[in-house]
């Protein structure tokens, strides 16, 4: 792939977007191929963005009792965010000045107004220049804000992905795939979609103040009649917005519920087929889908009604602003056209830009809080390994899958060190209660020496899997100690094959040793399977590759 021209583009090229000309010209002349796409600029690479945000988030975790993700994002992106916001504000200011020049140009057609007529050409040139300046300010600003939103999404996506790999088994059991999908798609997409509107939360009030000052000069107190109508309309739209949010939240809950049920059904499809539950599961999912469609339809009706109120409001704003002044003092053509232009800009600021900006901040803060809660979940605790030992030793180990009341009490104590209840007295309240939940492992003691074979047997729910999770560090012990070298090979009950060749699946990132590789292939009885493939152990598995039988998958997973 070619290097992105954006990396070496000059300021003029970025201002006029001329760096996009080569790819646009090529796409106009012929069909674009994958090789025509540019490489990702280094500033947009997931590695650089995630490393930068992760460093700031770790700094936030280390320096504060109550860390906030918004502070980490602020240190990463706030400077450029405000720079583009200032450009956006300057571009919006030019939009407020244009009606003044338009009014003076219209006044130049009055035969009695020779002063305006003599400078009409200069006024027209100034109006054209304002359009050019506005374009040169707004488009780079909007592009830059969308660019920052994309970078924030990529950085947080990578941060969530890395956090998922560190979560403890206790936490992973409580998180569904649907929740992760919602976190990575619905919540993160808000930054791409809405960041360009975020600045209007402060730009719109300043612009309304400027416009009302200009309208006061034209219409005096009559200007506030139109503003009052816009304020009432904005409050009405806010009510519709809350109604739409209620429907959208309910719809999101139903979507999440449907995804969870669909995922569980696919994971247990054998049981569904065995017990002939297809129709029952289909009906359950269909009912959720119908409820979801009803909520979507209701939200769409509210949104369309809200949009129609905006488009019909333009006439009433101008009418209510001009009518009182015309009845009292009369009005000239110049003031009518200037007032119409001012009211169009004012309507956009009050009924569109400001409500959208408030909604953007609301959605963004809600998404950031959800992501922050996820990033603060309990992580997998790495054991202190002893590389010199060759044994696996457990001494008086007790562990719990669920958080007991005692663990919750300890967390509460850590989060509220300034409690009025002394620590010595707090134990009196709970002296007769078991402060921990039911242990899945209690007082486990054993030692496995090098070369020793040990089989763990027991009934369902006896704790066999929990014991293996404990050895690997997936289950954190509440009491006792575990010692081993840290090099553990684990073959799960279900075979798992990653996309790649057979050799890559067996070596699995470890340095290749020919003798050990051949020994493992022979021990797992893979020689006959590999000999059947034309490309031997270089055959590709997974997506776009060969399909393996259950036995072959199990043997490769074991190897």
Automatic annotation (TrEMBL):
Membrane-spanning parts: 81-107, 119-143, 195-215, 221-241, 304-326
Lineage top rank: taxon: Eukaryota
GO CC annotations on file: apical plasma membrane; cytosol
Alphabetical list of Gene3D superfamilies matching this protein: ABC transporter type 1, transmembrane domain, P-loop containing nucleotide triphosphate hydrolases
InterPro entries: ABC1_TM_dom (IPR011527), ABC1_TM_sf (IPR036640), ABC_transporter-like_ATP-bd (IPR003439), ABC_transporter_C-like (IPR050173), CFTR/ABCC7 (IPR009147), P-loop_NTPase (IPR027417)
One Pfam family recorded for the sequence: ABC_tran
UniProt GO BP: bicarbonate transport
ABC transmembrane type-1 domain ranges (all copies): 86-323
Keywords: ATP-binding, Lipoprotein, Membrane, Nucleotide-binding, Palmitate, Transmembrane, Transmembrane helix, Transport, Ubl conjugation
GO molecular function: ABC-type transporter activity; ATP binding; ATP hydrolysis activity; chloride channel activity
Protein name: Cystic fibrosis transmembrane conductance regulator, ATP-binding cassette (Sub-family C, member 7), 5 prime
Source organism per UniProt: Echinops telfairi
């Amino acid at each position: 792939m070619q290097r992105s021209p954006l990396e070496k583009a000059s300021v003029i090229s970025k201002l006029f977007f001329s760096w996009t000309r080569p790819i646009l010209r090529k796409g106009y002349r012929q069909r674009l191929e994958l090789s025509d796409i540019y490489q990702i600029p280094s500033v947009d690479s997931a590695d650089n963005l995630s490393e930068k945000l992760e460093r700031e988030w770790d700094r936030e975790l280390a320096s504060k009792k109550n860390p906030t993700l918004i502070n980490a994002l602020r240190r990463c992106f706030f400077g450029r965010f405000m720079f583009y916001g200032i450009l956006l504000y300057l571009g919006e200011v030019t939009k407020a000045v244009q009606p003044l020049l338009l009014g003076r140009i219209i006044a130049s057609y009055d035969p009695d107004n020779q002063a305006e007529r003599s400078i009409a050409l200069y006024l027209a040139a100034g109006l054209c220049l304002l359009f050019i300046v506005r374009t040169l300010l707004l488009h780079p600003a909007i592009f830059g804000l969308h660019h920052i939103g994309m970078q924030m999404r990529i950085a947080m996506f990578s941060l969530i992905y890395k956090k998922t790999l560190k979560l403890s088994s206790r936490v992973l059991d409580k998180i569904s795939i649907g929740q992760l999908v919602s976190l990575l798609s619905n919540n993160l997409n808000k930054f791409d979609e809405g960041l360009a509107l975020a600045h209007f939360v402060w730009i719109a009030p300043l612009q309304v103040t400027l416009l009302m000052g200009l309208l006061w000069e034209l219409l005096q107190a009559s200007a506030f009649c139109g503003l009052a109508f816009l304020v009432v309309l904005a409050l009405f739209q806010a009510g519709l917005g809350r109604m739409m949010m209620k429907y959208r939240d309910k719809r999101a809950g139903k979507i999440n519920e449907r995804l969870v049920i669909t995922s569980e059904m696919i994971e247990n499809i054998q049981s569904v087929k065995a017990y002939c539950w297809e129709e029952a599961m289909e009906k359950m999912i269909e009912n959720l889908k119908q409820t979801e469609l009803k909520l979507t339809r209701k939200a769409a009706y509210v949104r369309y009604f809200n949009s129609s109120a905006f488009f019909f409001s333009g006439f009433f704003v101008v009418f209510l602003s001009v009518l009182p002044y015309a009845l009292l003092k009369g009005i000239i053509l110049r003031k009518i056209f200037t007032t119409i232009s001012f009211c169009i800009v004012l309507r956009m600021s009050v009924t569109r830009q400001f409500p959208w900006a408030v909604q953007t901040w609301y959605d963004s803060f809600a998404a950031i809080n959800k992501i922050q809660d996820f990033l603060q979940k309990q992580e997998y605790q790495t054991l202190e390994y002893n590389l010199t030992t060759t044994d696996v030793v457990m001494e008086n180990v007790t562990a719990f899958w669920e958080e007991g009341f005692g663990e919750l009490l300890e967390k509460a104590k850590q989060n509220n060190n300034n409690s009025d209840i002394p620590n010595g007295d707090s134990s009196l309240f709970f002296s007769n209660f078991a402060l921990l939940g039911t242990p899945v492992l209690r007082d486990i003691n054993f030692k496995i020496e090098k070369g020793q074979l040990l089989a763990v047997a027991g009934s369902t729910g006896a704790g066999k899997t929990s014991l293996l999770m404990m050895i690997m560090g997936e289950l954190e012990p509440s009491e006792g100690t575990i010692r081993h070298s840290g090099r553990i090979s684990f073959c799960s009950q279900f075979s798992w094959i990653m996309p790649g060749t057979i050799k890559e699946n067996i070596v699995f990132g470890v340095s290749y040793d020919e003798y050990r590789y051949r020994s493992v292939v022979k021990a797992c009885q893979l020689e006959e399977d590999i000999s059947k493939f034309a490309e031997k152990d270089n055959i590709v598995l997974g997506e776009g590759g060969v399909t393996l039988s259950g036995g072959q998958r199990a043997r490769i997973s074991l190897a």
